Amino acid sequence: MRGSGKDEPAEVEVEVVEASPGGDLTRHADPAAVVDALASTYGIPRATLEGFEYYHTGHKLFAVRKAEGAQVSDLPALDVYRVGLYVARIEGSLPHGLRLTMDGAQLWGGECAYWAELDDGSFRAWMRGEEVPLPPAAAMKLPPAPVPWFVVKHRGLPVGCTKKAKDRLLNFVPKERRTL
Question: Model's pTM, two decimal places?
C-alpha cells in the first residue's frame, strides 16, 4: 500500500466488489498488507488480525469477520457499511498510515502493545473532544519512532486512538461521539 499524503487514500492491491449505497466503490484490501500494517503499528498479534477480511472505500477501512467455509466477498450485493465495522482511517502510506477508529480501538485495543492510560479528568476532557496533556510515564507505553499512533485507555479499557504532539495527546473523537 502506498499513499501520497493525507488527502489521498493509500493505494491498495484491490479487487472491486461493487458500489456502496453512497456510490463509492468497495474494494477488497490486500489482507497481508493490512495485517502487516496493524501489527507493526499497534503491536496487535497477527493471529487476531487474520480472522478478518478487509475492505475499503476511500479513506475508510472496514473489517468483516471471516465466516467458516466461505468468504464474505462471495456474498452478492455486499454492503460493508452494514456488515463491516469501520476499524481504521487511511491517513497516509503504510505501514504506519492506519489510524484506528474508536470502534477499531475497542475491538483490538486490549491487545495493542502501545497505549496511554487517562485519569478520570483527562478522560472527560478527551471525550469532549479536547487535546489532553501526556499522562505520567508510568501510565504510557509509547511506540518506537517513527510509529505515530497508539491506543487511549481509561480504567484499562480502550476508548480510542491518538498520537503525541509535543506534550499533548491529539484528539480524534468524532464530533457525533463527543460528550458535553
Answer: 0.78
